[in-house]
Amino acid sequence: MRTLRAALMPVLLLATLAACTGGNRTFGERARDAVDPPSGPVEATGRAVDRAVDRVRPN
């Protein structure tokens, strides 16, 4: 049970961060997705997480 819980915690964290992005993508993000679309759900989630973390981090 502990192993299952430990495996699901990062997934929950990533899903929460990915949900934060919403539809508020910048022009550059939309252009990148148009020119170089994510090759699958894992890459799309990775980009969403990167964008969410970049928005949370102070400049």
From TrEMBL:
Compositional bias annotation for Basic and acidic residues: 48-59
Disordered: annotated segments: 28-59
Residues making up the signal peptide according to the UniProt record: 1-21
Keywords on record: Signal
Name the UniProt record assigns to this protein: Argininosuccinate lyase
Organism of this sequence: Roseomonas indoligenes
Lineage: Bacteria, Pseudomonadati, Pseudomonadota, Alphaproteobacteria, Acetobacterales
